[in-house]
Amino acid sequence: MNGVIVYTDGACRGNPGPGGYAAIVEDGGRKTELFRGYRWTTNNRMEIQSVIAALETIDPAVPVRLFSDSQYVLNTLSKGWIAGWKRRDWISSARQPVKNRDLWEHLDRLVARRAMTYQWVRGHASHAENNRCDELAVIAALGQDLAIDSAYEAENPYPKAASIPASRPILTGLLIQNELPGLV
């Protein structure tokens, strides 16, 4: 398949807690790393947000091959869970409201417009890009000036007693582009 390769991961320091997502987008000879941190969220939300962030940078006409260690994300996308949720008015098979509906609706709109294939990779194993995404997601979660996950915090208020150590690096929202030698 010609197109773009995307690697994603999410992280959370506590669950809920400060979280971050990361994505690596490989498009021909260019590699772009995206990551961002949030002050109060969940790991699953960050896993979904990593895919959203990547897809928002890619032309919908370009096919995408998605690599992720999140079976939650990959099963939802590849097994048609979203279609079932929509048929049941966003109620899960367990007859509960679907968690993270705001992100799933957004991701559904992005995925519906493009050709995609999905590949699961074992997390924290020997997959270099997945390990890099994990590293960036953790860095983002530990950063300062973390973004607010408004939809999550509306239902799960941020604990006022939570403190963010002053020693955290300011690295959220960073975009890095590198030319990769030997890639066409």
What does the model show?
This protein is an alpha/beta fold and 184 residues long. Residues 164-174 and 176-184 have low confidence and may be disordered. It is 33% helix and 26% strand. A hairpin with a 4-residue loop joins strand 1 (4-12) and strand 2 (17-27). The protein has a six-stranded mixed sheet with strand order 5-4-1-2-3-6, with helices on both faces.
Helical segment count: 6
Largest sheet: 6 strands, mixed
Give me the CATH architecture, please: 2-Layer Sandwich
Could you state the oligomeric state of the chains shown?
single chain
Gyration radius, rounded = 16 Å
* Helix/strand order, N-terminal first: EEEHEHHHEHHE
Structural class computed from helices and strand pairing = alpha/beta
Low-confidence stretches: 164-174, 176-184
- Give a count of the beta strands, DSSP E runs of length 2 or more: 6
Distance between the termini: 14 Å
Instruction: Estimate the mean pLDDT confidence.
Output: 89
* CATH fold call: Nucleotidyltransferase, domain 5
Q: CATH H-level name... which superfamily? A: Ribonuclease H-like superfamily/Ribonuclease H
